[in-house]
Each structure stands twice: as C-alpha cells, then as structure tokens.
Amino acid sequence: MNKNDTVPVRTDPDINDQDAVWGAQWSIVCGLLRAEVGEAAYQSWLKPMTLRGITDGEVRISVPTRFMRDWIVAHYTDRLSELWAAENADVKGVDVFIQSDRESPSAGPAGRSLGSPAEPAKGGSDRTVAEISGPLDRRFDFEHFVVGKPNEFAYAAARRVAEAHSAQFNPLFLYGGVGLGKTHLMHAIAWHIQKKTPDRTVIYLSAEKFMYRFIRALREKNTVDFKDQFRSVDVLMIDDVQFISGKDSTQEEFFHTFNALVDQGRQIVISSDKSPSDLEGMEERLISRLNCGLVADIHATNYELRLGILQSKAEQLSVTVPPKVMEFLAHKITANVRELEGALNRVVAHAQLVGREISLEATQDVLHDLLRANDRRVTIEEIQKRVASHFNIRTSDMHSARRARSVARPRQVAMYLAKQLTARSLPEIGRKFGGRDHTTVMHAVKKVDELREHDSSFAEDVELLRRMLEG
Ligand code: ADP
Ligand code: MG
Predict the structure, then answer these.
(1) Residues enclosing ligand 1, CB less than 6 A?
(2) What is the mean pLDDT of residues 375-395?
(3) How high is the pLDDT of residue 101?
C-alpha cells in the first residue's frame, strides 16, 4: 500500500467540518499503520478502533474491550502518535479508552463516533466445544494409517498421546511435507479419544480457523468466551501452524492459550510443514515453546511404504489391482501420499467407467500428465551436480565454506535454481548448501536476478541450466 492510500472509515452524517478533517486524517493514519503492521494485525487490533475526537492535542480513540486497549497501548500508541503528528501538528498524544459501540449513539458529543474502520458488531454467541472443533474425516483413524520407516516415530508418538490419560510430551509437534499424513494422525488421535474416553474434550482446528475465530471473537467482542472455550479443553490440536507465521496478534493469542493449557497439564498437538526452528516469522519465545515437547518428523515416503499404502487403499476400495500396476505406481508417484491416493483413485475410476480390467497400459495412459510432472521433479542434489559440472567446479564446493568468486557464483546459481525448481523453503535450501542461513539463499536469489538482468550471457547460462534440469 503506498502512502496515499486510505482506508475507508465510517463517518457520521452530521459531523462538522472540523470533524471531517479529523476523520480524513484518521483514515490516512489508519492506512499508513495498516501498511506497516500487515493485514492480520490490522484486522485484529486496529480496525475495531473508533475515533472520538481530539481534545487539547490529544487524540481520543475508543476500543470495545480492556484486552484490546491494553494491547494497543502496549504496541501501537507510540506509532499512532507519530503518524498523527505528521498529519496534524497540533496532535501531541493519543488516548485509548474502553467504550463499546453500543454506548455511542446516546453518549453525547464526547461519545460521538467520527469514524471507525470497524464493521458493526454482531450479537454474542456461545458456541460449544463441539462446534468449534473442525470436522473429522471418518477414514482418518489409526486403523487406516499404514506404518513404515518414514512415519513410525510420528505414529508411535500420536498413539501414545491418544492412549494416555494425561499430557505426555507437550506439545507433540508433528512436522512433514504436504500430504504425508499429519492431518490423518491428528484426526486419528481425536477419534481414538472420543471413542475410549468420551468425557474428555478434544478440539481439532486448522491454524487458519483458529485465527479466523479469534478475529471474529475480537469483532464480536467476546474474546473472554473465546479464551474460555479454548482453555477448558483436555486436548487441543492445531493443524498447519505455519499458517500463523507472521500473523502477530494471532500468534500472541495462541501463545497465551498454549501456556494456559500447558500450565494446566492439558495436551497440545501441533502440526506444521516445517520444523519449529524453520518457521519463519514466528516469535522466538513461541518457537522455543514448540521445541519444548516432542518433535516428530514425518519423512518422505519410501517405496515399501507407498506400496503398503496402495495395498491398503485398494482393499478399502474393494478392488483388485494387479501387482504390476501397484509397483509401477509406487515407483512413479513419489511426491506424497495424497498424490499417490489420487492416482490410484483415478486408475480405479477409469477402469470402472470403461468396464475394463486395470492394466499397466491403461494406467500409463490415464496418468500420463501426472507421470510427466513426477518425472520432471528435480532434487537439490541434481541441481548442485549439474551446476557444478557446468561451471567446472567440484560438487563438494556447493557445501564448502570457500568464498572465492569462482565457486561462490556457481553456488548462488544453484541456490537460485533450487528456489525456482523445487518446493523447498529457504532454510531447507540453506541447509543443503553446507548449513547456510536462509538469508544467504535470499541474497543469492536476488544477486542472480540482478545479474540476469544486466548480463545476457549469464542469463543464457542460467536459462540453459534450467532447461536441462527440467528435462
Ligand atoms: P498432510 O496433513 O500431512 O498434508 P494428510 O494427513 O491430509 O497429509 O494425508 C493426505 C492423504 O494421504 C490422506 O488421504 C491420508 O489418509 C493419506 N495418508 C497419508 N499417510 C498415510 C498413511 N501412512 N497411511 C494411509 N494413508 C495415508
Ligand atoms: Mg494437513
């Protein structure tokens, strides 16, 4: 958002000119702050503010709850003052006080609302735990989870949590790439507890939903209910926690909920596509909390596990799939279990549709697009090898600490291509290059982009490498 963008604010029809000027300044200040703090923080904390006026150089802003008042005073009033002062030299300070919207219409001049970026509040609500918890997939139980080397540790930990009557490792932190079974294991824990000890309350929620509910509670002004609901459960499971990276106010709330539950000895289970330490944009203290329990990594599948999963799924579908086809799929669809499952489903559906037996030939035919995509997937190791040989350096120099340009430049090219051609995160890429920091990778990507722009023969080199790697 650039400096001139403003945020729409509500204006009172009978406000006078002075108020109109203040209202316009308020909307500029809000716009600037919104650009600074990001959308999530803005929605949670700043949007509910209402400008009430300016008295003796003090901007008066109301917010609906004490919780919000304290938070805004602690984090935003200094900046608000500065921004205001830049718009209006008379402003010397900001006063934030508690006043609900409902009080305002009859509250006299002082209570008149000049403008607020907030939406009108909806009525209160008393959702039960069952309503808060996300739906559970019937098929995601322990019985349908195939265990192999890559996931046996995560499986054992999940089972342990499900069977125990008190908190085990707190939190259990499940992490692994997409489609490797994190959600499946969490649902399995929930099913197991619901079946064996139905009096225990379990909440399973995606981090996205958690954030959404939190923001809604803020807007509806019932954060107290929100806190109560979350802090009274026996087991809290938050899926895909990487989603709240960088969303500061949600992280803050999550952190408090987390601490409150741990203090009471309740079990917490978290999943993420990154390890706690690799969660960019996550607060240090939250990361150290997440690291405190048991971190269970779900590794990429291997051939045996993929074959086992295919057999189990075929059995569930009650179809006979020739071993040759299973082996073919297990060899070819290596990205993740979700894709593997999808491939099997497509093959089965196709056979049923055309009324023919499942064959290897038909499988190749039905899946040709998927197979091509899988063939094209390159690894960082391949990139390193290819780039090293192209520039005539040793592959080991990709990991070495040598900084001579003759090796540093090819290394940067390889990092750049790793970012472009794989789904790896910056920290993951850094690690594969001799444990370098993610900022080094970021710098490499920027540098290569720059060079490509100014040096056409370099740009051609990179393009050539890319085409060779994509095959
Ligand atoms: P994630 O949450 O890690 O992205 P999911 O738990 O949603 O992955 O798993 C994707 C799909 O793969 C689901 O349909 C799930 O049932 C299946 N799946 C993953 N791992 C296994 C496993 N070990 N055994 C059986 N099915 C699995
Ligand atoms: Mg998931």
Answers:
(1) 140, 144-146, 151, 176, 178-184, 309, 337-338, 341
(2) 88
(3) 53
